[in-house]
């Protein structure tokens, strides 16, 4: 039986659309705070003397540091009672009427040049695909986006491909 | 910060089936708060226990998916950085972990190859609870010099 698609032309029009944030400066303090928060004591993230003796030449950020640049900062008065912000990024703007659930469906990350103090990071989010599947508990719409993190020299630091699953 | 003495394996030494040193993590309220702050994740399900239990009907505050992703890369960087680098990770969050649960971050070598003058090691990676329940699973790649 042919089912009607849940992906409207308005939703499909989001494929290829981009949203850019930044540039935002990376400091040694940001990196140190990140390493402390995740509990990572490798001296390459903190100690210039150790870092100078390696091929990195200076302290660098731990791989997942890029996610500190992921969420949109919003002022207190804009947050909902749940603490969630209202700007949840381009992928939550894709209209899928009746699909109230939003589940993280996984992530794939390629690491390029290391992130260093002094880098100015620009993040571009791009919707690359939208498709649907019939799940056990109902239809699901998959929204795939790609996030590209570059520095002031246009070097690619990170590419992250993510799946958001919208459910009824 | 003192220099940790860590023995980083060479590409030649690494064998398929080798297990990476397990990272043990017990993220308490304080760590989940710190991670919420550093990622500007204001959602109460990560830092407000009464809200999470009473309003969202959760067993506690949730360990962030990004934090578990961070640990999948930390187990790789603990193993090879600074001699090598973390090149790739792919994962899915499969189950819920809450504050003060003991988590074990694990990795196992599934293959290695010389590519573009670099030694690339492929790994299976996962986070499991004390009873073996997997909360996050995926794969990764590190690069090392070809000796």
Oligomer: heterodimer
Number of strands of chain B: 5
* Order of strands, widest sheet of chain B: 1-3-4-5-2
The overall pLDDT of chain B, averaged over residues, is 94
The general outline of chain A is: elongated
* Largest interface pair: A-B, 42 and 45 residues
Radius of gyration of chain B equals 17 Å
Name the CATH superfamily classification of chain B. Answer: Hotdog Thioesterase
Residue stretches of chain A low in confidence (pLDDT < 50, at least 5 long) are none
The CATH topology of chain A, please?
Answer: Thiol Ester Dehydrase, Chain A
Total number of helical segments of chain B?
A: 3
Termini distance of chain A? 20 Å
Helix content of chain A: 10-25%
Based on DSSP secondary structure assignment, what is the total number of beta strands of chain A? 5
Distance between the ends of chain B: 29 Å
Proper CATH architecture of chain A: Roll
Care to describe what's here?
- The complex is a heterodimer of chains A (168) and B (147).
- By secondary structure, chain A is mostly beta strands.
- Chain A is 12% helix and 36% strand.
- Chain A has a single domain, classed as Roll (Thiol Ester Dehydrase, Chain A).
- Chain A contains three helices and five strands.
- The model of chain A has no long low-confidence stretch (mean pLDDT 93).
- By secondary structure, chain B is an alpha+beta fold.
- Chain B has a single domain (23-145), classed as Hotdog Thioesterase (Thiol Ester Dehydrase, Chain A), CATH 3.10.129.
- Chain B is built from three helices and five strands.
- Chain B has helices spanning 29-38, 49-54, 65-80; strands at 23-25, 85-93, 103-115, 118-129, 134-145.
- In chain B, strands 1-3-4-5-2 form a five-stranded antiparallel β-sheet, covered by helices on one side.
- Chain A binds chain B through residues 33-34, 36-44, 46-47, 50-51, 54-56, 62-64, 67-68, 70-74, 79, 82-85, 104-111, 114, and chain B through 1-4, 25, 31, 34-35, 37-45, 47-48, 51, 55, 65-67, 69-71, 73-74, 76-78, 81-83, 85-93, 138.
């Amino acid at each position: 039986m042919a089912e009607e698609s849940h992906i409207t032309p308005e939703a499909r029009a989001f494929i290829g659309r981009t949203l850019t944030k930044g540039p935002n400066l990376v400091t040694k303090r940001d990196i140190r705070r990140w390493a402390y928060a995740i509990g990572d004591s490798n001296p390459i993230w903190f100690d210039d003397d150790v870092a100078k003796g390696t091929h990195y030449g200076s302290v660098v950020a731990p791989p997942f540091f890029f996610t500190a640049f992921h969420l949109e900062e919003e002022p207190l008065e804009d947050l909902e009672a749940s603490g969630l912000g209202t700007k949840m990024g381009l992928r939550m703007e894709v209209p899928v009427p009746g699909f109230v659930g939003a589940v993280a469906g996984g992530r794939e990350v390629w690491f390029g040049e290391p992130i260093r103090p002094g880098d100015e990071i620009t993040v571009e989010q791009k919707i690359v695909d939208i498709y649907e599947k019939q799940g056990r508990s109902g239809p699901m719409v998959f929204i795939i986006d790609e996030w590209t993190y570059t520095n002031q020299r246009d070097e690619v630091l990170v590419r992250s491909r993510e799946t958001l699953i919208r459910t009824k | 910060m003192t220099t940790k003495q860590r023995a980083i394996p060479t590409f030649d030494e690494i064998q398929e089936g080798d297990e990476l040193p397990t990272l043990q993590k017990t993220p308490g309220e304080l760590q989940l708060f710190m991670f919420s702050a550093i990622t500007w994740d204001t959602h109460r399900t990560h830092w407000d226990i009464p809200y999470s239990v009473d309003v969202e009907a959760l067993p506690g505050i949730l360990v962030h998916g990004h934090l578990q992703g961070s640990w999948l890369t930390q187990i790789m960087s603990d193993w090879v950085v600074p001699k090598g680098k973390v090149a790739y990770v792919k994962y899915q969050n499969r189950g819920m972990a809450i504050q003060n649960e003991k988590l074990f971050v694990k990795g196992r070598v599934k293959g290695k190859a010389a590519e573009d003058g670099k030694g690339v090691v492929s790994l299976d990676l996962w986070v499991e609870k004390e009873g073996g329940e997997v909360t996050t699973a995926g794969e990764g790649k590190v690069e090392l010099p070809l000796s």
